[in-house]
Structures are given as C-alpha cells and as structure tokens.
Specification:
Radius of gyration: 23 Å
Bound molecules: flavin-adenine dinucleotide
Number of strands: 5
CATH class of the largest domain: Mainly Alpha
Helix content: 40-55%
Number of domains: 3
Oligomer: single chain
Order of helices and strands: EHEHEHEHEHHHHHHHHHHHHHH
Distance between the termini: 66 Å
Largest sheet: 5 strands, parallel
Number of helices: 18
Length: 469
C-alpha cells in the first residue's frame, strides 16, 4: 500500500477533512502529521490561551485517530525539514494539506509545495476553512471588496457550500514512526492558570459538534435579537472551534439548513451573516496582508495615538478601570479566554477612543488571552473599532460604555457576574457608581478616564488628523 502524508495544521478534525479524504480516495494509507513550528507564524506566533487550547485539541484528535485504528504523528521543528525527514522515513508518495491564510505561513506553504512537486511527489492543498476562498469573490472591477454588504451579497449569489463528508469509522494503520511527546511542545501554561477555562470549553471535534448541537437546540431561536445581550448564551460560541478547524463552516451551515423553518429562518440568516464577517475578514487579510500590523486606511498613520501608562494598561487588561461593563468584559476574558462580541466592541472602543491607545495594544492583548484569537478576525475587529479598517465604524462614533451597558445589559446581570463587588448596589447604580457619588470598597471610585473628556480628546485628535488631509 502507498502512503500519503496528511499534514494537519489548523484543521484539527476528521469529518469534512479534504486532505484526509483526498488520501483515502487516491487509495493511500493516510499518515496524519502535526508539526509544531510556532516561529514560522512571523510576528503573530499563537498566544498563551491559543496554545492551551491547541494542546487539548491535539490530544482530542490523537484519541479520535487512535479510536479509528490510525495515529497522529507529532513532530516539532522547521516544517520543511520535518516533512522531508518524514518523507524519507516513510516513503510517502503524496502530501496533502488544507490551506492556511496568514501571510507568513502562506508563503512558506507555497515554497514547500513547489519543492515537493519538483521531487516528483503528488502535493495538493485544499480549502478546509472557508465557504469561499479569499480570492474567489471580486468586485466588478476585479478588485477586493472593502465593504461588507456587497461582499456578502456576491457571496450569497454564488452560494454552493460543499456537502458534509463523514470520515470512515476505521482508518488503515499508518507506518509507525518515532514522534515527539505532545508535552514537549510546551503548550500548557506554567503555572497552570487555565483549569478554569475547561468548565466552559471542550476543545476538539466532539466538543465542536456538541457546541453546534447546543446552539441549534437552544440559542439559535432568537439569535437575531439575543446575540447582542452578554448576560446569556445568545450566540453559538463556535469561534475557537472554527479557528482551530475542529468543525467546517459548511457543516455548520448544513446543520442549520436542516433545522430551517418559518420560525427560525431570520435567526439562521442573521447567524450565517456573522459567518460572512469571518469570510470577509479572510478576504481582507488575503488582499491586505500588512493589516495585522498596519492601518488599512493610511490616514490613520498620522493619528496622534496616546502613550498608555503601564498603570492604565494594567487596569484595562485586568478589569480595574472603574467602568463596570469594561471590567466585566476584561475579567470574562481573563477567566474564560472568551468575551462576548458586544463587550469586545465596548472594551476596544474605550481603549482606542477614550484612552486613545493604538489599536495594536488591544489586538496584542486579545491575541494572548483569547482562545479564539484569529489573525483575520482579530485584525478586522480592532481596525473596525479604531475606524482604520475596511467598512469600519466611523472614528467619530464614540461608544458611551455606560449607555451601552444600560442598553445591552439592562438588568446588570453580566456586570454583576464578573464584578461582584457591585452586587449590593441597586441595579441602576451598577452601571456607573461614581455618577451616584457611591464608593464601593475594593472597586475604583472613579473611572480611569473621564468619559466626556476622553470622548472630546478623541474627537479633537480625529479632527486634527482630518485637517492634515
Ligand atoms: P456567533 O455570534 O455565534 O457567530 C458565529 C461565528 O461567526 C463566530 O464563531 C465567528 O467565527 C464568526 N463571527 C461572528 N462575529 C464576527 C465578527 N465580527 N468578525 C468576524 N467573524 C465573526 N473573532 C474571532 O473568532 N477571533 C478573534 O480574534 C476576534 N477578535 C475580535 C476583536 C474585536 C475587537 C472584536 C470587536 C471582535 C472580534 N472577533 C473575533 C469577532 C467576534 O467577537 C467573535 O467571533 C464572536 O464573539 C465569537 O462568538 P460566537 O462564536 O458565539 O459568535
């Protein structure tokens, strides 16, 4: 029997796995391989929360492969060198993988593919992560979209999500090769600050599947209205599973299509539209590969960002700003590796507008602390809030965090969950205790920044940037 290497990267699943499928359909024994090479991600090597997730996801994938009679070969080191070693040791005739879209690894993969083909190997890459390849949709002029609505309209007009594919219950055993220990990858934090995370998450394909089922049985109904309310599970919480490729977006769409009826059609459309923002983020990252580190709108290169003091930075990061909704969000992030989307927008807005810190300050912190940290989505999110990105919120629209909290957390349930110091106050006073002259022991008596003054300075800075046009 011939062997094919199935090089797994951010597609840590077996169902809807095009590389595995290609190996089986060509009659090869698949040899699943994961190479740990974080240095090859350039300036955006995965952060601490991502690494902790990856550890558990690889463990789950290995168990799943073993239960089907196969094995996951783990190696670390330079990807190309490791591939060559494994090819020499196993005599594989083919190498298959699904694509990654981060600029640093994209060019590496192109180089590796060229060399493997020159060696006479059958080498193919597939789409395993997206509904549309980032280059597939183009404007009438043939360029990239910079506005979401026409992008999504074009996507819906060309909709043809692949049919789900279930991996076989048994896989042929691959040649036994020496591998590295998962523990040797050093992905788990030391000291272990993550155990609290796993009450909220089950990394791996089975965890992704149960999250999807919980969503279709629960929060899907009412998603359109409830997705903005952080005090409840009103969204799918599929983001880390999608990021690590533990579930294919087209399987998510197929599951929703199966559930579709007159009562939930609008909720399903609203949810699929959010998947559309993920597609848009990858489209932008592909066409504007400098945007993880640079403003898409070059006018913002002149923006007078303020230098954040170490004390202010720490107060924002650790949820001690004295602005309850911001502190709740930052504490949720610290405790669970996740933050509700509405609250992400609020905490980001306070950082880049009221405190006028560069959006990269926030993007870097999210990168290290989110279990769903994703270069495309995180870049889009931060540049959107900062006003420097594609289809971004205009800079002059400054969220008032107190008004946002009153609107989206009206019973202050989310605030109270994460900022229990405020639990003794009547609900209306929990949004901005200082406005009522209340000092709560152990909680900042004043917000880190005067909200009216911070807003004014942000608008003045924006006006100065515009005047220089
Ligand atoms: P659902 O509402 O159930 O949405 C389903 C899926 O659609 C998500 O899992 C996600 O893959 C995608 N999605 C939803 N909203 C967005 C969006 N605005 N942009 C792109 N994709 C979206 N998302 C990440 O996955 N990784 C990040 O690193 C990330 N950083 C962000 C930073 C900022 C400042 C902001 C404002 C948003 C960021 N987001 C990021 C987008 C969004 O907050 C999360 O995708 C969402 O909260 C995940 O929860 P969910 O899976 O329950 O979402």
């Amino acid at each position: 029997m011939t062997h094919a290497l199935v090089w797994l990267r951010r597609d840590l699943r077996l169902d809807d796995q095009p590389a595995l499928r290609a190996a089986l359909e060509a009659g090869h024994v698949p040899l699943p391989l994961y190479i740990h090479a974080p240095d090859e991600e350039g300036a955006w090597a995965p952060g601490a929360a991502s690494n902790a997730w990856l550890h558990h996801s690889l463990q789950a994938l290995r168990e799943e492969l073993r239960s089907r009679g196969s094995e996951l070969l783990l190696r670390r080191g330079d990807s190309e060198r490791v591939l060559q070693e494994v090819i020499a040791q196993s005599g594989v005739q083919a190498v298959y993988w699904t694509r990654k879209y981060e600029p640093a690894t994209q060019s590496r993969d192109a180089r590796i593919k060229r060399r493997l083909r020159e060696q006479g190997l059958d080498c193919e890459s597939f789409n395993g992560a997206l509904l549309f390849e980032p280059w597939e949709l183009a404007t009438k002029q043939g360029g990239p979209y910079k506005v979401f609505t026409p992008f999504w309209r074009a996507a819906l007009a060309q909709w043809r999500a692949p049919a789900p594919w279930d991996a076989p219950a048994r896989l042929p055993p691959p040649a036994a090769l020496p591998g590295d220990d998962l523990e040797a990858f050093g992905l788990l934090p030391s000291p272990r600050w993550d155990p609290g995370f796993w009450a909220h998450w089950q990394p791996g394909e089975a965890g992704a599947r149960s999250m999807l089922e919980a969503f279709t049985d629960g929060a899907l109904r009412g998603y359109r209205e409830q997705r903005d309310l952080p005090d409840r599970t009103g969204t799918s919480r599929l983001s880390p599973h999608l990021h690590f490729g533990e579930i294919a977006p087209w399987r998510v769409c197929a599951a929703l299509a199966d559930e579709r009826n007159a009562a939930n059609a609008a909720d399903i459309d609203a949810f699929v539209r959010q998947l559309g923002w993920r597609e848009f983020a990858y489209h932008l990252l592909h066409h504007f590969p400098r945007t993880p580190d640079h403003n898409l709108d070059a006018r913002f290169d002149r923006f007078p960002w303020a230098k954040l003091s170490p004390a202010d930075r720490k107060a924002w990061q650790r949820g001690r700003t004295g602005i309850p909704i911001v502190d709740a969000g930052m504490r949720e992030l610290w405790a669970t590796g996740y933050m509700h989307n509405r609250v992400r927008m609020i905490v980001a807005s306070v950082l880049v507008k009221h405190l006028r810190a560069h959006w990269l300050e926030g993007a870097r912190w999210f990168w290290d602390t989110l279990v769903d940290a994703d270069l495309a989505n995180n870049t889009l999110g931060w540049q959107w809030v900062a006003g420097s990105g594609a289809d971004a919120a205009p800079y002059f629209r400054v969220f008032n965090p107190v008004a946002q909290a009153r609107r989206f957390d009206p019973q202050a349930r989310y605030i109270t969950r994460w900022v229990p110091e405020l639990a003794a106050l009547p609900v209306p006073q929990r949004f901005a205790p200082w406005e009522h002259g209340i000092v709560v022991s152990g909680y900042p008596s004043q917000p880190l920044v005067d909200l009216a003054e911070g807003r004014k300075q942000a608008l003045d800075a924006y006006a100065a940037m515009r005047t220089a046009d």
